[in-house]
Specification:
5 copies of one chain form a homopentamer. By secondary structure, chain A is mainly alpha-helical. Chain A is built from 13 helices and no strands.
């Protein structure tokens, strides 16, 4: 299930290179086959209808059976294509907007991880390093907890299993809302530092932003596009394609079956993509985000010493340069307050 | 009335599974019948017109009565379909945007419930636990109060009847704006804690966010899409479908009635969905939100002890690991401030 | 002028009920007559052109006069309808977006009224109740002042005449920017309370939000959609409808005049709605907002005692329940901090 | 150059009145002539091509020269009009979105001017009035400085020449980024007041908002819509109109030249508006904004005394009313804290 | 690679002048050739198919080979063009929205550079000028670091090589996330100043805003538009153009090859632009942003003295004018607090 057909992994520069060359136009039979299999029931139905229409039009109608196949019927499909178009545009744009909103919300999580960690590491005195370490640990757990909660899939806990005591893991897995618990723990840890109220409030503001971003994902995952639209679009497209052969036979004769199959693939294919990405947490690479955010939190703690070192070295060099008064950044000594 | 045809309940993973399989294309006769009954007056009108056109075209026009039915008239429908299309696109997109904005605002309420509760529980000293408990109680009442106010339906109070004294309930039900009252109570409770001004202001900021989200819902519920557009769209679609038979008869002959019925169902159906979801608080699962937000507020208080326990246990384990200096999270001891 | 054809009053539940039933499709002759009168000049022009075309095509062209009427010309209208469509879509969507942005900004005013009042009433000590009362009075005046300023109509002052001293009213009416003055007064009143800087800044932040929302309305009211688009759309639609009869006559013969009238009504009608709502403060129910916001401010002060009473009673009941230890909210005593 | 064809001055109520009457449909020959002159090169090219096509189709093709003009070619224009439509929709919507974003950002400047001035005047003690005066002076200079910087036109300085010492003006005119300098001066002035850190930070937040709004304008002015789209749209439209006569001749015969001219005017006209408003600071009434924002800043200082007076008078009247206990605002004495 | 065909450099006033004149419609053969080369594989394929169709239709079909080329097939392309249109609209709008979002986020960086620097320079006492200088140095390094990280191209470091010690440069180049390190350094420098917590938090808020804007760029660069849409669009367009000759031959005969080439160029060209700007950091002028932001940071420090001087001079002049009491800004002394 993890190698989902509609899952989009992060793009590397190589991916982009291929993406923008003419190679993107090459057929990919393996993917085509999988998509085709996905649409096979609809295709089967369309083939059945087309075959029936061909046989009726060729054998029965000429014998005086009631006229069911006629070039004249095409006007109806021309008149209604605007409505089909509007429903498919609506589905495409709405589904993509949901997908991108979820992606944006998940991307905001990374900002919370980095910002809270940076603020804490700048502001907390060295004597409270153990609190910063604990905070980083829970910061690294936060994204997997949110993913497990959103996707209702326990497998995301694997990403942070080594960071948690077995009892902690068991407790979180049994909670009905683990990320809210983790946020409360992070909030409690900040309260135990010697940060002032104003600093604490600033960190808490970022935790609030995480909750809001989590809420956006919850909202998208729990609330589908109004079913009435989904239903109406599906009905419209199926009715349209089912009756199209009655009008199309006189134009294309024995090519009817392949043409209807191609049309069905192209039209139902568009609707199908919109339906598949409607629940974005299923197609976004959530596991990657878990690993990435975990790495971000832990690596900031690990490199804290380097950053402090860089600050010291820079200040020393600047002082030396100021003393020598022949600094290469001559422009900057004009600030002379 | 609760089992409203356009009400969209939250989706479970099972719902999503069905949603993305080919089963979404299966006809649902029960729903179809209910939608059809909803549109039956319009359908009846269209059948009447079509029947009249058929009779006139078949019996009277050939006898030299004035020509009212002609293939040539089709050009008018082809020329104007772009305008009908634009009105229906406008209705669809605007109605859905309102629906989604209301859903987003209601989702923001949950964030307020969780964020205010988390901040209070982290920041208030244990000696003021009774104030936190009271705050949680009103926090749990806030969403039902907002729903009762927005939907002008007293039944939402049932969700929190057990949390309120009879006198409180009576007072709130008699208020013209209960959620504003509840927000004022929550604000007053925060003022009575020993929180500093900066902390109090941060909590108040979230209460302000609730009021803004509530205002968004009020705005959507009180102000419909400009009636001029609604009216013009309805007139356009009815005129279009009423006169279509005069042009369509020569193309489809005796199939006119079923075809007009299908066309009417598909076109008026699109407009109808847009009208039904235009007032989103009627079709969103507000009762679920009441229950969910109530649970969120109360369960955070209930699990407050667990969170405190997890913080303590984690700090102890970290201290032990630091002492043993062989911690499995070896990377993190490089932070050495 | 107050019973403006495009003015949309707030919807009540009854309005919604009618709105979503089939009754919205019923013709409303009175409104139709008023809209028709609005478009009558254009209609007159179209009737004149159509009549001329009919006479020319029937009497003169057959006699060998130059060919001006031909079925072949229809191709030009088919080719260009996409451009007309795009201009009308643009007008519809832009006008509605402006209308909704203005409505949202005006809705934000109510949030400012409620939030500032709530914050003040929670935070200011009882000894400064007179300052809160004065603040509420100016809070109630704020929205009428903003409406009088935006709509350049003095009649909005009537809403708050009883709240203002004659000298105050005279002074405000003579100001070139009354809402900015009222905001300055409110800001000055807050400064005179004993609120701390942090609390004062929070209130001031909401006053800033009012100014931003006011600025949005000013921007929309002072700056129309680029005239070039408005002009081009009008020219395009008039040229299109003026020359359409030359192509349409051979298709519809003596039905030309009614058909062109209907087409003109439908197409120019769409453009006309877009133009009418382009300046939203003229069609939004501003007087209702004035009254509503006034009521919100004053009623919060009036019910302040009830809120304080509810807080006290709730805390007492909770204390009693905690003492009895058999509270019906058993879950909440598990928080045991 | 100031009377730019696409410049949109602020609308007065009278403008709106004319705008929404039928008069907007009247032709404006003077403006038409100017637009036509703007498009004259394209029109000339289209006339040349049409004339060539007419001559070829009438004289040469019948003599057996290769067939270049045929009714059959029309299908190509029908097939591709959707793509031309999409490019023109894209240009129209994107150009208008940029224009409106710039207008919104410029409108935000006014809010900054008013909000910073109000906060300062409320918060700064009377003894520091000279600092407030200086702040107002620079506040009034801020918008002209931003306009001169954005439009790279020194003439905007005239608006505030009387407010600046010659040496200040000379210095600002020589800066590469004057508004950033003015913001730094305003920030420095605030630092010299006795405002607390929290108040200073709130004012600074509004200055940040000015910088962000300025950045939005810079971004729009420096970065055009991707040239590839502009180029492709222009090429598409020119190719479309250039080859259209080859298909159109058989339909319209000797009316070809006027018809192609009208089509060219309508289609290229739409693209042209999009291009002209793509750089909004050139078509927005920037000089008006300079004057308006200057007036706003200075008049707030000028009327500061009136505001203080209104506050005092109001408090006195309320005290008197409270003493008399029969105030007409009877509802408000129920707050009884 | 730097002279990328789709790279859009900042527009100067001269560029705008040319842009809005008729010259934008002139063909640019050099650019045309480069675009054509880009699409040459697709064009080659289309030429091959068209040639085959021509030969088959002219030589083989008349001899009784199966009918593969027919005017009747055109109906299929007319029916499906709405779906192709919707896919191309989706690609165009989505790609442009990503491009503009990235441009906006990058523009936000400049605001952070200017705002943090201004706040620091206003607030930090002269004795800590060395910290401000160091902050400016890292502020100037921040944008190149972000660009090197986003584009995975080390060449951006050249922009700030002279500002960094070799060891600093080496360390940053080896980091996996250099901008986060630079932000941590800047945060640490602010902590070492004597700024109060509230001031520090305000600066930190802007650093958070940089992180959020960086996150937006990361999100856009790592996550492409859902591949399913890209694939479906490409397949649809190729299938459409590949089979079009079978329907088009009877209409255009021997002009088939050039017409298909032009159609291919126009349609695939639109899709191609959308694909090329899908990853905006590759086509935006990132190097310019690096240089611009570096200049902004350093020049603010360099001109700090001028700003202080301007403040002093202005205050002195105002004091003198107040003393003389005949100031030209007579209106302002009416504030008389």
């Amino acid at each position: 299930q993890e190698d989902h057909l509609f899952k989009d992994e992060p793009f590397t520069p190589t991916d982009w290179e291929r993406h923008r060359s003419w190679r993107r136009h090459c057929p990919e039979p393996r993917i085509f086959a999988r998509v085709f299999r996905m649409l096979s029931i609809v295709e089967l139905w369309l083939v059945a209808v087309s075959t029936f229409v061909m046989l009726y039009a060729h054998f029965l109608q000429p014998k005086g059976w009631p006229q069911a196949v006629s070039k004249e019927y095409m006007i109806i499909f021309q008149l209604t294509s605007f409505a089909l178009s509007l429903l498919m545009v609506f589905r495409t744009q709405t589904a993509h907007a949901r997908w991108w909103e979820a992606r944006t919300a998940v991307g905001r999580w990374l900002n919370v991880v980095r910002n809270t960690q940076r603020m804490l590491m700048s502001w907390v005195p060295p004597s409270e390093a153990h609190l910063v370490g604990e905070f980083a640990r829970w910061n690294a757990v936060l994204t997997p907890a949110a993913c497990a909660y959103l996707c209702r899939r326990q497998s995301y806990w694997e990403v942070c299993e080594d960071l948690l005591q077995p009892s902690e893991l068991a407790w979180l897995r049994s909670c009905d809302n683990p990320p809210v618990k983790v946020l409360a723990i992070m909030s409690g840890l900040v309260k135990r530092t010697s940060l002032s109220q104003i600093e604490r409030t600033a960190v808490e503001g970022e935790l609030n932003a995480f909750d809001v971003a989590l809420g956006a994902c919850e909202r998208i995952t729990r609330q589908a596009i109004p079913m009435a639209y989904t239903r109406h679009t599906s009905r419209f497209i199926i009715v349209y394609l089912t009756f199209l052969p009655f009008a199309l036979w006189p134009y294309v004769q024995w090519l009817l079956v392949p043409i209807i199959m191609v049309l069905g693939f192209l039209l139902v294919g568009i609707e199908n993509i919109g339906v598949q990405i409607e629940n974005p947490v299923r197609v976004l690479p959530m596991r990657r985000f878990c690993i990435g955010n975990r790495t971000a939190a832990l690596s900031m703690v690990r490199h804290h010493g380097d950053v402090q070192h860089a600050i010291e070295a820079g200040l020393l060099a600047a002082a030396a340069a100021a003393a020598a008064a022949e600094s290469p950044m001559a422009g900057m000594d004009g600030k002379g307050q």
